[in-house]
Design brief:
Largest sheet of chain B: 2 strands, antiparallel
Strand order of the largest sheet of chain B: 1-2
Number of domains of chain A: 2
Number of strands of chain B: 4
CATH class of the largest domain in chain A: Alpha Beta
Structural class of chain A: alpha/beta
Chains: A alpha/beta (about 300), B mainly alpha (about 350), C alpha/beta (about 500)
Structural class of chain B: mainly alpha
Radius of gyration of chain A: 21 Å
Helix content of chain B: over 70%
CATH topology of the largest domain in chain A: Rossmann fold
Distance between the termini of chain A: 38 Å
Distance between the termini of chain B: 18 Å
Number of helices of chain B: 15
Order of helices and strands of chain A: HEHEHEHEEHEHEHEHEHEHEE
Number of strands of chain A: 12
Largest sheet of chain A: 6 strands, parallel
Shape of chain B: globular
Oligomer: heterotrimer
Helix content of chain A: 40-55%
CATH architecture of the largest domain in chain A: 3-Layer(aba) Sandwich
Largest interface: A-B, 44 and 45 residues
Chain lengths: ~300, ~350, ~500
């Protein structure tokens, strides 16, 4: 995770520059700056804070929980109005959240979840639903294939939360259709390289994807690798095989335009507009909120 | 009588270091043949050879290039943990310069220079400052992917994907039905072999790895030799980086070539070299890389749930190393009556 | 507590044979060890001493033959098994871990803690107990590496010994000890003997054999020549048994022939020195002349040679080779200037054990030629074969890894490498260390022959005999300082010893 330290530092510096006197001061402890999505998420949180008149104190934990605990304690010491945490890991939060509660600072979770003994230690979690993303992809595919489809699946990193939940959501939907089944599934580790390797093997083991109607990838990067592998094998992704994935990164937008991909579920990075209103409303009039507020997911197709 | 001669020849083969890795490779392929009946089919698709065997060769190329550089470094009793990061940096450099519009031949050169510079840095830490190799190369291993990200940030590459006829031609193209990268790999292998074996560099590397103090007293400049080994490793990693980056058409410093240093070290060890240094086996290192890739490919086509992948890989690798261990072998021949000399 | 020779034997090895690929190491050898005897095991390089010992101590298994311990047939598959039965070994190269404390080294094996835990209090008690047996009073918390080689040797012996040790094998224990330390060791050996332990003593110092041993067994070319009581075997007969030829040859080598006048000055050192290592000294090496470096262990012999070779950078004075001053001296520059060096410690500084004899021999030539101009394989082979023949290196072929050769043959490979670089000046540091009598004489003869060919030689040695026999001129060192030179008729034991002892030095 240290490898992101330099990049993370760049963000931290820019965050400090834009903090001036605003009505509400909110601390945000971010996981780090890995991948494409998280830096975009951080940038959006900082940008849209200005729109809401929020003084956002941004701290990059560089993937380390101890860094994150230190940041949260610093926010408590500064007496911010609220704290947003994108947790690095799910456990080990009871103590620091108790400290925040005693200081009467409300905690909001974004992105990942935490496990605490006392759920009242945080107000709510505002995030997208990986399971829902899988369901959306499954529903689109069911509609598009009219409920008859043999699917190859490119899983994310084995055991990771998005991989588990997207698979569950997807399977929950296609389980309703007896003629839909996953005939091959392998982990591509969320990378283009991994997606390409796995698809190459699928092409060989299924005799050029004979009878396969769709490829479901847990993220766009793997799907982009799969598209390359299919093109190199003389197949036409998007036409011979339906291509559906999750994330909606810029490169998949290009692929959708080119007709090489068919659908991508957006994992929003522009989520400030969903998160800040909830927090500001709560600060104005504190009240019991549901423990999870889901940020809606959109499915994009070529047109 | 001739039976006995053949038997003796087979028994003598046990002591040939090439036998066990080749046997492992053959076994993996035979098992694949049972898993997937058309495993050995080779067809022509889109003007190129197409099939699992081609895939194994094709996919083994970057791993073999990294492992060859690693073999040289390990020969000096060193290790280079930073090869994955060097690949990340090369990828970022390629994407950056393509966006900047440089001629692609020049970009190829830049990428190799980037690898050489990384090698110079490692060589400086190890040979110049005398830092232990595992620590010295850990520095770049940790920092390298960050440097790659910074380069991506530097030109604002939110979508660092690119198209390049030259680079993709080298990586995914083909000449007379055969993937171009196999020619690239063969060329680099021969070049490295010539550099190591047609000059005295190989002797110096093995002498320094075997006993640096004695080599110094024999007049070998052991620091320079060590330094040079890291530069070679950097350039080989960069060549692998060009192929991997062009393969995916994108620079992905965070996850490209993740754990490739471990596979490279494994390939060198399967190839029969000792981490204690003193020997460089280039040909056997390539066999080692093929064993690992054959294993990876067969796991992918096996249809086993991905949860099993790493465990199976570990078990097979353990079995290969077990077969290579002299202690294990003599224990086995003691168990089999008549098997001992 | 018996020292009687008539008691039943401790160990009997009967008809022991062992072959390695291409070499018959032992051919039906018998060896009997009685309780309370010191049994000297002698033989030239490759005679089979090490192989026999390794079989006795379980490091190797024999192809044929029987081993009986106190009448019971035994077959050890590991050194641990042998040790558990009471057979312990101390090897020539001390097998201790220098960075670890004495306590830890002593309790590395047989840490008898419950559940595998080590009780350090108990370990310390055991360590003190073990050292007490040897009457050795040292700080057991200090690292082994901080003690002298002699002390390390004693610690290694202490580790090997315990209450039920029946046989103790000492493989060249005195190789790196000075006279007084050797005496201490002998005191300990006599003590062990009195306790009824059978001691196998391997050495190449004949005077020590006569001082300490009760019986002598001589091996030659893998066969037992004879086992005799020491009192019945005069030294001349012993040497003849060992090398299988008339002693006359050996004596001739030690006898000085008419010497030609030395030739041109090859190396001139003026005020050469290094702080905290060696006081500045003057030394001239001439063509066709052997200069001996005499002095006690630690007097600066090795350092003198290394300063001239550039393996240690000097910080005062100057060094010229053939009239040209060498600045920023390094082994590489020294080699280019025609100086070659054979280090004392073959294992750590001399050879690359993994590489073949051929590769070790060509290494220096190749380093001088540069990495681009590789010596063709055929030339390498020819050179290696020539050297193997010229120096009589015992090996089936030139491709054998050097690490598998015996000590004397390894030393010859180091010498071969130096000679292959066609030097004009040759620096030899302990050229006969760990080599037995036959090879010893061969090397002295070789040194003289090289000298007659016009080489300038510097021979550093701890053995006075060697210095006296080989040198035309002797530089004497004491306490890291050159204290004088002797030449011609003045070179004899008495003069050198008097100078080292600090009596009126015969300066010339």
């Amino acid at each position: 995770m240290l490898k992101n330290a330099l990049a993370g530092a760049a963000f931290a510096v820019s965050a400090l520059v834009c903090s001036t006197a605003f009505a509400q001061t909110i601390g945000f402890s971010q996981v780090g700056s890995e991948g494409d999505w998280r830096p975009a998420f951080s940038a959006n949180m900082q940008e849209s804070a200005k729109d809401y008149g929020i003084d956002l104190k941004f701290a990059n934990a560089q993937g380390k929980q101890e860094e994150q605990l230190r940041a949260v304690r610093a926010f408590i010491a500064q007496g911010v109005d609220a704290i947003i945490i994108a947790p690095v890991v799910v456990t080990g939060w009871d103590q620091v959240l108790q400290e925040a509660k005693e200081a009467e600072i409300p905690i909001f979770l974004v992105d990942r979840d935490v496990e605490v003994k006392d759920p009242s230690l945080y107000v709510t979690r505002i995030s997208a639903d990986f399971n829902l993303e899988g369901k959306l992809a499954g529903a689109w595919l069911a509609a598009e294939s009219k409920g008859t489809c043999k699917i190859v699946e490119l899983q994310g990193t084995t055991g990771s939360a998005p991989a588990i939940e997207r698979k569950k959501g997807f399977e929950a939907v296609i389980g309703q259709f007896p003629a839909m089944e996953i005939v091959a599934t392998q982990s591509g580790d969320f990378t283009t390289e991994g997606g390409k390797k796995v698809m190459e093997a699928f092409i060989k083991s299924t005799n050029n994807l004979d009878g396969i109607c769709a490829s479901f990838a847990h993220n766009d990067n793997m799907q982009l690798g799969a598209i390359q592998a299919m093109k190199e094998a003389g197949l036409k992704p998007g036409k011979d095989v339906l291509m559906v994935s999750v994330d909606y990164v810029p490169a998949i937008v290009e692929a959708l335009k080119a007709g090489e991909a068919n659908a991508s579920v957006e994992l929003r990075s522009a989520v400030g507009k969903f998160i800040y209103p909830v927090i500001l409303d709560y600060l104005k009039s504190p009240q019991e909120l549901p423990k999870w507020i889901v940020i809606p997911s959109d499915l994009h197709t070529a047109n | 009588m001739s039976d006995r001669g053949t038997l003796n020849r087979i028994i003598a083969l046990r002591h040939n270091r090439a036998v066990w890795p080749l046997l492992a490779l053959a076994l993996i392929l035979i098992v694949d043949g049972f898993i997937s009946p058309n495993f050995f089919d080779i067809r022509i698709v889109e003007g190129r050879l197409f099939g699992n065997l081609i895939d194994i060769l094709y996919r083994a190329v970057p791993a073999a290039l990294i492992a060859l550089g690693m073999a040289v470094v390990i020969g000096t009793k060193g290790i280079d943990l930073s090869v994955g990061s060097i690949i990340a940096i090369c990828g970022a450099v390629i994407a950056w310069r393509i966006q900047a519009g440089d001629p692609h031949l020049l970009i190829l050169f830049y990428a190799l220079v980037a690898g050489a510079v990384c090698g110079v840095w490692n060589g400086f830490l190890v040979a110049g400052l005398g830092i232990q190799p595992i620590i010295a190369t850990l520095v770049l291993m940790v920092a390298g992917r960050g440097i790659g990200l910074l380069i991506n940030l530097f030109y604002g590459g939110t979508n660092p994907s690119f198209e390049s006829e030259l680079l993709q031609g080298l990586s995914t193209g083909n000449i007379w039905l055969i993937p171009t990268r196999l020619f690239v790999a063969l060329g680099l292998f021969l070049a490295l072999w010539a550099l190591i074996r047609r000059t005295a560099l190989g002797l110096f590397i093995e002498a320094v790895g075997g006993n640096a103090a004695a080599s110094n007293l024999a007049g070998v400049n052991s620091r320079l030799v060590t330094f040079f080994a890291y530069v070679i490793c950097g350039v080989m990693a960069a060549a692998a980086g060009v192929i991997m980056t062009a393969d995916t058409h994108t620079s992905d410093p965070v996850s490209v070539a993740m754990y490739s240093e471990l596979d490279a070290i494994l390939a060198v060890v399967i190839g029969g070299a000792s981490l204690a240094g003193g020997r460089v086996f280039l040909g056997m290192t390539v066999i080692g890389a093929l064993v690992i890739q054959a294993l990876t490919t067969s796991i992918l086509i096996s249809g086993l749930p991905p949860e099993y992948n790493l465990v199976i890989k570990a078990l097979v690798v353990m079995a290969v190393l077990f077969l290579q261990s002299d202690n294990a072998r003599s224990a086995i021949s003691r168990l089999i009556p008549g098997g001992s000399r | 507590m018996t020292t009687s020779m008539t008691a039943s034997p401790r160990v009997e090895m009967l008809g022991v044979s062992k072959s390695f690929p291409g070499v018959r190491a032992l051919d039906s050898v018998d060896l009997t060890l009685h309780p309370g005897e010191v049994h000297a095991l002698l033989g030239e390089n490759g005679a089979g001493k090490s192989t026999l010992i390794k079989i006795l101590t379980g490091a190797l298994e024999c192809d044929r033959g029987d081993i009986r311990l106190e009448g019971r047939p035994v077959s050890f598959r590991t050194t641990g098994e042998a040790q558990a039965s009471g057979i312990s070994t101390v090897y020539q190269e001390v097998n201790l871990i220098p960075a670890m404390s004495v306590t830890k080294n002593l309790t590395l094996e047989r840490t008898g803690g419950r559940l595998g835990f080590v009780s350090w209090r108990r370990a310390r008690e055991q360590a003190r107990e073990k050292l007490q047996r040897l009457k050795l009073d040292i700080n057991i918390e200090q690292s082994v590496g901080s003690y002298s080689v002699a002390i390390q040797q004693l610690v290694a012996i202490a580790r090997a010994l315990d209450d039920d040790t029946k046989v103790l094998v000492l493989d060249e224990p005195t190789a790196s000890l000075d006279a007084q330390e050797t005496e201490t060791l002998f005191g300990i050996i006599r003590d062990l003997k009195a306790r009824g332990i059978a001691v196998v003593f391997i050495t190449h110092f004949l005077d020590q054999v006569y001082e300490i041993s009760d019986r002598i067994s001589v091996l030659r070319n893998g066969s037992l020549v004879a086992t005799k009581p020491t009192s019945e075997l005069p030294p001349q007969d012993l040497v003849a048994m060992m090398i299988g030829r008339e002693l006359g040859d050996v004596e001739a080598a030690f006898t000085k022939s008419e010497r030609k006048a030395p030739g041109a000055e090859k190396v001139v050192a003026r005020n050469l020195g290094k702080k905290r290592m060696l006081e500045p000294f003057d030394l001239v090496l001439r063509a066709g002349e052997v200069v001996g470096l005499a002095g006690l262990l630690g007097s600066g012999r090795t350092e003198t040679a290394k300063l001239i070779f550039g393996a240690i950078r000097h910080d005062s004075g100057s060094l010229s080779v053939r009239g040209t001053e060498i600045r920023g001296n390094s082994p590489r520059r020294a080699l280019d200037a025609g100086i070659a060096f054979c280090p004392e410690d073959r294992k750590t500084e001399g050879l690359v054990g993994e590489l073949s004899i051929r590769e070790n021999i060509v290494l220096t030539m190749q380093a001088k030629g540069g990495w681009l101009r590789r010596i063709p394989h055929r030339d390498q082979e020819r050179l290696a074969d020539e050297m193997i023949k010229a120096l009589a290196i015992a090996t089936p072929d030139a491709e054998k890894p050097v690490g598998q050769l015996s000590g004397g043959n390894q030393q010859k490979v180091v010498l071969a490498r130096a000679l292959a670089s066609k030097p004009e000046v040759l620096l030899l540091d302990e050229p006969t260390r760990g080599i037995d009598v036959g090879a010893h004489a061969e090397i002295i003869v070789l040194i003289r022959a090289l000298c007659d060919e016009g080489l300038a030689l510097l021979v550093a040695s701890s053995e006075l005999d060697e210095i006296v026999a080989a040198s035309d001129r002797v530089a004497v060192l004491r306490d890291r300082q050159k204290i004088g030179e002797l030449s011609g008729e003045a070179i004899n034991h008495e003069n050198i010893i008097r100078m080292i002892a600090g009596g009126g030095a015969d300066h010339e």
